[in-house]
Design goal:
Elements (H helix, E strand, L loop, with lengths): L14 H8 L2 H11 L6 H8 L3 H12 L1
Length: 65
């Protein structure tokens, strides 16, 4: 697996939310999956990660925020 990086200033007001999202294992799996795909539906993500659709939706909403 390739290393992937996100660069965020500590002064960015979104840094706390970003750190919370990145500490969530499911969110990290979704980010990793999407970084390798041109596009994917919620169902594609749920199927690939073998997680419930409502869990996928919940975590995608966290990521979108």
């Amino acid at each position: 697996m390739k290393d992937k990086f996100i660069l965020v200033s500590l002064d960015d007001e979104r840094a706390k939310h970003i750190s919370e999202v990145l500490s969530n294992k499911t969110c990290k799996k979704i980010i990793d999956f999407l970084s390798e795909q041109k596009e994917a539906s919620e169902k594609d993500i749920a199927d690939f990660l073998k997680i419930p659709l409502n869990t996928t939706e919940y975590n995608l909403n966290k990521l979108i925020k």
